[in-house]
């Protein structure tokens, strides 16, 4: 899809902007699936103040979409209208140690690096982040978890900016955490988080992380172009078991495939389009519903517009 260039008007209205704003930026390389179209405009803010300034002066009718590590994301082939915001740089990736076994991390800090920083400092309780292929902002938004740990278990507070450019502090009780969900308003862009750990032995923590890594490598297709778990586990059920029972292991649409190794993972075998991946996921959902009566819910986020009306 072809989008008009928003950037000249936006830059003219924001003379103090310090971040990078570009038009028609390809987004495929920002996702683990390596698929997807263009952003009408892509903004990389310099820091939290720059992000607030941008949002305050952005016209209300321009849509805003945030992307993080791209590990749990399908960007549709027609691209994303409006402004796509991607956090990066030291302001959003810094990890700092504080008193009382606290760790503060920017929203763009990779989960695995937070786990490693905690381990090196002898702070236990955050090892589960080693098993989450994303960044802290996504972990806050979806209460990410793995290996018997969830973000809700360790979060003290999070900081974010709303669509009007105003900063907010969210205490744990404000987050509204549930399984793979936070009830914080959708327009909030998280910028950092403060976590509570506990005293631990670095060698023991690193050994635990090594076990998590080995378990992931043995059970998940992490060396493929994939997006992590595709569907949420229904109550008292495992999504992969429902998918397997419906005969979907190895199922193919275009160049997208249900993983033979772990059938709650989709794989881009090389040339899959976003439409292939999403279409495959919808086919899996249909087959599981026909077989078990259970309607799987997407865990992977899907954004943007389809390249053609018949894509899905």
What this model shows, in words?
Helices cover 26% and strands 25% of the residues. It is α+β, with helices and mostly antiparallel strands and 312 residues long. The strands form six sheets. It has a five-stranded antiparallel beta sheet with strand order 6-7-13-11-12. Strands 1-2-5-3 form a four-stranded mixed beta sheet, with no helix packed on it. A four-stranded antiparallel beta sheet has the order 15-18-17-16. The longest helix is centred in the C-terminal third of the chain and has 19 residues, at 274-292.
What would you say about this model in short?
The protein is α+β, with helices and mostly antiparallel strands. The chain is 26% helix and 25% strand.
Q: Helicity range of the residues?
A: 25-40%
Residue stretches low in confidence (pLDDT < 50, at least 5 long) are: none
Total beta strands: 19
- Can you identify the CATH class of the largest domain? Alpha Beta
Query: How far apart are the termini?
Result: 16 Å
The helix count comes to: 8
Mean pLDDT: 95
Shape: globular
**Beta-strand residue percentage:** 25-35%
Order of helices and strands: HEEHEEEHEEHEHEEEEEEHEHEEEHE
What CATH architecture of the largest domain would you give? 2-Layer Sandwich
Helix/strand-derived class? alpha+beta
The CATH topology of the largest domain is: Uridine Diphospho-n-acetylenolpyruvylglucosamine Reductase, domain 3
Q: How many whole angstroms does the radius of gyration measure?
A: 20 Å
Spatial sequence of strands, sheet with the most strands: 6-7-13-11-12
Main sheet makeup: 5 strands, antiparallel
Number of domains: 3
